[in-house]
Design a protein that fits this description.
The structure holds two protein chains of two kinds. By secondary structure, chain A is of the alpha+beta class. Helices cover 23% and strands 34% of the residues of chain A. Chain A is elongated, with a radius of gyration of 24 Å. The chains are: A alpha+beta, B mainly alpha.
């Protein structure tokens, strides 16, 4: 089921305070059968967007369509959605079976079939042994799966997940995100999930939607968005460690960062912001490149070495130091204090104008 | 370390335990023992042996059985009814956030109003000719009921007493339930909405189960309160304890009546010995 939002707007007004445009005139099409990650820092409007799709919040403007059907004014119970809450919202006094049965009972599904579907969905999420337990007797990951089962058992048109992994520990998070991906593939249900964790969004989404201040910054396949960020915000938000930002300029088709040549560009001469991914640096053993720095700190973890390099412009204490990070192959033996010459991979370098839009 | 802490705990508890020992536990046990005394004189504290006659005296008393019946009807009808009504009112209050504060005050007023005054007001509301209840019944073409007049039936009197008891018990229950509902995570209601639950289903399967600890607490406390019903009878019927004398007598009223009459009798027959008042 394709989800289409036209000009969708949600304004929260509070007495004596400025209105907050949590979702600001967004147009978005979520393709059918895909797993979409809504991504952004907290307060960017991603959860609000999810709750607007669910119908638990009412938009101030705009329309929402599920396929051809307009659901703008449809109450949540008639939209045919499954929603997994951040805290799962499992009814604590009901067993897992009762929790999963609850939506089916409300939909007046015949008892035998309802029980049958409950067992089937429990098998899908791997909880068939846990059906008679209460939620508090389950681990966080199991509770999560009960919540997904409860959302899926009524065969919704759309599955919505609000920060599905935020309450899980690191190991379980990896496991659960694979699980969500698998369940989504098996059910082929259009799924939208909200997260502030870019790694999480990039690892399992078919497409990601990056939001900021209620506005969509960019949408696309995770790797595409990562490789071709449309603005500085997207470039900074995706990737860990963060992209390195330098002040620079284009002069005679040559790009300079911190006054040193880092590449070429066909764009006209101007002041620019140069973003270089940490993995975009290679060590120039011939020491002929222009971009060179004295290494401050070296961290070798497994196959990668992270070089931390201090740049000018820090006037404060240790924590205010302006640094950038370069990730290079661990084969190079580099020690703090070495002067290293870098080549820059053109595909890992992004140029933005001074207002942050990609050139 | 442990014993030291225990000692400290006992010291902290001591004032309360001593007071409870003197004013609760001792009188409780003592009253039980006294109930077996023969010819007990409360003023002098003397008795002439042990007997079971006190019990047979009570058990043979018609008023005692009437008081048991009345009290149990009050307790087992008014408690569930008032709990159910106050649950509904609390849910309704939750759904009108703007007027909630106003109505909460309205519903709470009976709690801070004198029970006797409310009883007198109700006595007028139940008046056969001018009372509000009969006026309303009149709108529907029902003849006025003799609720609490001199010739009214036991059922009519009990109904009036129950209406009064339920109403005056609502205030505290609504207060407890509304604050309890505020502690129920809103996500459960959102989840239920997504799960297509009707309002009744939400009430029955989410609100009530999640409030059940409070419902239990309220059931116990109001059951205890109802078993001690006395003010309500006095307020509604005056000191003759019913439309006919003693027709609405309760256990506490029975105890009061017997002891007052007995004390009057004792004062008449016992020569005054001032020092014995201190016993």
């Amino acid at each position: 089921m394709e989800i289409r939002m036209n000009n969708l707007t949600k304004i929260f007004s509070a007495k004596n305070k400025k209105d907050v445009h949590a979702v600001d005139h967004i147009d978005l099409v979520i393709p059918s059968g895909k797993l979409i990650g809504l991504l952004g820092p907290s307060g960017c409007g991603k959860s609000t967007t999810l709750y607007l799709i669910a119908g638990l919040l009412r938009q101030n403007e705009g329309e929402i369509y599920f396929g051809e059907e307009e659901v703008t004014e449809t109450p949540p119970e008639k939209r045919g959605i499954g929603l997994v809450f951040q805290n799962y919202a499992l009814y604590p006094h009901m067993t897992v079976r009762e929790n999963i049965l609850f939506p089916l009972q409300n939909l007046k599904i015949e008892k035998q079939e309802a029980l049958q579907r409950t067992v089937e969905i429990a098998e899908l999420v791997g909880l068939q042994e846990m059906l008679d337990r209460k939620p508090k007797e389950l681990s966080g990951g199991q509770q999560q799966r009960v919540a997904i089962a409860r959302a899926l058992v009524k065969k919704p048109r759309v599955l919505l997940l609000d920060e599905p992994l935020s309450n899980l520990d690191a190991r379980l998070r990896l496991q659960t995100r694979e699980e969500i991906k698998r369940i989504q593939r098996e059910t082929q249900i259009t799924t939208v999930f909200v997260t502030h964790d870019q790694e999480e969004a990039m690892s399992i989404s078919d497409e990601i939607v990056v939001m900021k201040d209620g506005v969509i910054q960019q949408m696309g396949e995770p790797q595409h968005v990562y490789n071709f960020p449309q603005n500085l915000f997207v470039a900074k938000f995706l990737g860990s460690p963060q992209i390195n930002i330098f002040e620079g300029e284009i002069k005679n088709k040559i790009v300079y960062a911190n006054g040193m040549k880092v590449g070429t560009s066909k764009k006209p001469d101007q002041q620019v912001v140069v973003g270089i991914r940490p993995e975009g640096f290679t060590v120039d053993s011939t020491k002929t490149s222009d971009f060179h720095y004295v290494i401050d700190l070296v961290e070798t973890i497994g196959r990668d070495t992270t070089l931390i390099i201090e740049v000018e412009g820090n006037d404060g204490s240790l924590l205010d130091k302006k640094t950038f990070k370069a990730i290079v192959d661990a084969d190079y033996k580099i020690a703090a204090g070495d002067e290293i010459y870098f080549n820059i991979k053109p595909s890992k370098m992004h140029l933005f104008d001074t207002s942050g839009n990609v050139l | 370390m442990e014993t030291k802490n225990n000692l400290r705990a006992w010291i902290y508890l001591a004032p309360l335990l001593i007071l409870m020992g003197i004013f609760t536990f001792y009188p409780l046990i003592n009253a039980f023992i006294i109930s077996f005394y023969k010819d007990y004189l409360p003023i002098s504290g003397t008795a002439s042996g042990l007997t079971l006659n006190n019990f047979s005296y009570v058990f043979r008393n018609q008023l005692f059985w009437a008081s048991i019946k009345n009290t149990f009807v009050i307790a087992f009808v008014s408690v569930p009814v008032s709990i159910i009504i106050s649950l509904f009112i609390s849910v309704a209050l939750k759904n009108i956030p703007k007027l909630k504060g106003f109505f909460q005050t309205v519903f709470f007023l009976p709690y801070v109003t004198n029970a006797i005054a409310i009883g007198m007001a109700f006595a007028f509301l139940f008046h056969q000719d001018y009372g509000l209840f009969n006026v309303i019944l009149g709108w529907f073409g029902v003849d006025g009921i003799n609720w609490i007049g001199g010739t009214s039936s036991w059922i009519a009197q009990m109904s009036a007493l129950l209406v009064y008891t339920v109403w005056s018990g609502l205030a505290f229950k609504i207060l407890v339930f509304t604050s309890g509902m505020q502690n129920i995570d809103k996500q459960y209601y959102d989840a239920a909405k997504i799960d297509s639950a009707s309002k009744w289903t939400v009430f029955k399967r989410i609100t009530v189960p999640l409030l059940s600890p409070l419902i239990l607490y309220i059931s116990i406390t109001s059951m205890i309160g109802a078993l001690k019903a006395y003010n309500s009878v006095i307020g509604l019927f005056g000191t003759q304890l019913g439309a006919q004398p003693y027709s609405m007598i309760t256990i506490v009223a029975f105890v009061m009546d017997i002891s007052i009459n007995y004390l009057k009798f004792l004062i008449l027959v016992t020569p005054l010995r001032p020092q014995s008042f201190f016993l």
